UniProtKB/TrEMBL annotation:
Domain KRR1 small subunit processome component second KH: 16-103
Species of origin: Triatoma dimidiata
CC per GO annotation: small-subunit processome
Bias kind Basic and acidic residues: ranges: 181-194
Basic residues bias spans: 124-138
Record-given protein name: Putative rrna processing protein
């Protein structure tokens, strides 16, 4: 702690507190993460705590040193202990800010502030108390399970074991040819699908007029007019 801040301890109403945080967390990785969370990015969390509690804070090694009024020291200790218990300091900072605003309000000064303060909900899942899924017990049989067939056993059962190498090659080639033929047929079917025209939904307005009702008188008059035009001399 610098001398300028340490001299304030001699003043009335100001004290100091050294909080040992090394023994609060056993694992080193967790300790480093939580200490960094207490400091904040570029020391933002420490600065905000200093402004809210009117205390000077110094986080170094496995200790946190604080100098300031007694009320602020109590608040700093609570925030540090909660942070090392995996409670983010932002919850305590929010509650301190709300308390300061509520203390300045004369109407809410004498009321209970618990409804305004943020509540921390732990999301830690206890895996130890989880019931293991009950596995169905198999029926007891005195006989051992059947052994899986070897490749030689399969060849003996099919009769391929006694064939010559040329005959085996022929059988393999035939199987390959069958697979290729099946793949070729599937490929051709996929190509044909692209040339199948889609079904068109013809609306009632576009349907051709197939009705047999024809005006015969109008047709006869048209035919007579055409004949007269043809007979007329040029």
């Amino acid at each position: 702690v610098p001398v300028e801040q340490a001299q304030k301890v001699l003043e009335d109403g100001i004290g100091s507190d050294i909080i040992k945080i090394g023994s609060m967390v056993h694992k080193k990785e967790k300790f480093l993460k939580r200490r960094q969370r207490l400091i904040g990015p570029a020391g933002c969390t420490v600065k905000s705590l200093e402004l809210l509690t009117n205390c000077y804070l110094k986080v170094q090694g496995q200790t946190v040193a604080a100098v300031g009024p007694y009320k602020g020291l109590i608040q700093v200790r609570r925030v540090v202990e909660d942070t090392m218990k995996n409670i983010h300091p932002i919850y305590n900072i929010k509650s301190l800010m709300l308390k300061r605003e509520l203390a300045n309000d004369p109407q809410l000064k004498s009321e209970n502030w618990s409804r305004f303060l943020p509540k921390y909900i732990s999301k830690k899942v206890n895996t130890k108390n989880k019931k293991s899924k009950s596995k169905k017990k198999k029926e007891y049989t005195p006989f051992p399970p059947p052994q899986p067939e070897r490749k030689i056993d399969k060849l003996l059962a099919s009769g391929e074991y006694f064939l010559k190498e040329d005959q085996k090659k022929k059988i393999r080639n035939q199987e390959l040819m069958k697979k290729r033929e099946q793949a070729e047929i599937a490929r051709q079917e996929r190509r044909k699908e692209a040339f199948i025209p889609p079904t068109e939904n013809v609306s009632s307005s576009q349907k051709p007029n197939t009705s047999s009702d024809v005006d015969m008188k109008a047709l006869k008059e048209k035919v007579k007019k055409l004949k007269k035009k043809i007979k007329m001399p040029e």
